[in-house]
Design brief:
Elements lengths: L2 E4 L5 H12 L3 E6 L2 H11 L4 E5 L5 H9 L10 E4 L15 H28 L3 E5 L12 H20 L6 E7 L2 E2 L2 H5 L4 H8 L5 E2 H12 L9 E4 L15
Helix pairs in contact: 1-8, 4-5
């Protein structure tokens, strides 16, 4: 039985991915800050199939202690899904919060590369796989996207760099780059503004966490000689924004 580590499993894409992989016969270890949600998920799926680790991905000491405490059956990872991440704020750069910028960088970039580096030797040994959650924001800039888009561009380029370095090891690396997915993403970004979330997704028929989870599972279960380098997804209702023009 293969084992996956999925970060950010307390809601949205991460939670849907945990369910999808367990249903497909994988063991899953998932992480998140909200212990009560992790406990409920594990109780639902069964502790023989899923384990939840409650810590902030930015806290390397807490991360290492939690991983070290896993049952033996859950310690050998065949797949790392770096899903944990967030966007904070919608202000233009000149009035944005520097603290929010740093939090996004620490979470979306530093924590991701730190966990990846920790697991790489074992993933190489097991000829495993890494799937990183980037975003269409890595490619298409938009007003207020500034540092969030920059972090996701890093994730995309880091994924391609890993592919180069891991050539010949059998390890597969994929950057998944979704567009609009209805999750708690906008609630987090706007500090709980339900009206803003409803306005963004209303009438748009956006993608769901389950849509992306099924894509992650498809990538993970491809034959080992196939690698999806990057995969960009959007709902049909979303397309490439037009250029902005500021007029006098």
């Amino acid at each position: 039985m293969r084992t996956a580590l999925i970060t950010g499993g307390t809601s949205g894409i991460g939670e849907a991915a945990v369910r999808a992989f367990v249903a497909a016969g994988w063991r899953v270890v998932t992480t998140g800050r909200r212990k009560e949600r992790l406990d409920a998920l594990v109780a639902e799926l069964g502790a023989d199939k899923a384990q939840g680790l409650a810590f902030d991905v930015r806290d390397e000491a807490a991360r290492d202690a939690a991983l070290d405490a896993l049952p033996a059956d859950f310690r050998q990872f065949d797949l790392l899904i770096n899903n944990a991440g967030l966007a904070l704020g919608t202000a233009p750069a000149q009035s944005a919060s520097l603290d929010q910028w740093k939090t996004m960088i620490d979470t979306n970039v530093t924590a991701l590369v730190s966990l990846t580096r920790k697991l790489l030797p074992a993933l190489v040994e097991r000829k495993g796989a890494i799937i990183n959650l980037s975003s269409v924001a890595a490619t298409y800039p938009y007003t207020g996207g500034n540092v969030y888009g920059g972090t996701k561009a890093f994730v995309r380029q880091f994924s391609l760099g890993l592919r180069s370095d891991l050539s010949g090891t059998g390890v597969r690396v994929t950057s998944i780059e979704p567009g609009m997915v209805e999750t708690e993403f906008t609630l987090v970004r706007t500090e709980g503004n339900q009206e803003a979330s409803d306005k963004l997704y209303g009438g748009a028929n956006p993608m769901t966490g389950e849509d992306i989870a099924n894509t992650l599972l498809w990538v993970a279960e491809l034959p080992p000689h196939l690698n999806i380098n990057t995969l960009e997804l959007m709902p049909v209702s979303q397309s490439f924004a037009g250029f902005q023009v500021a007029r006098n």
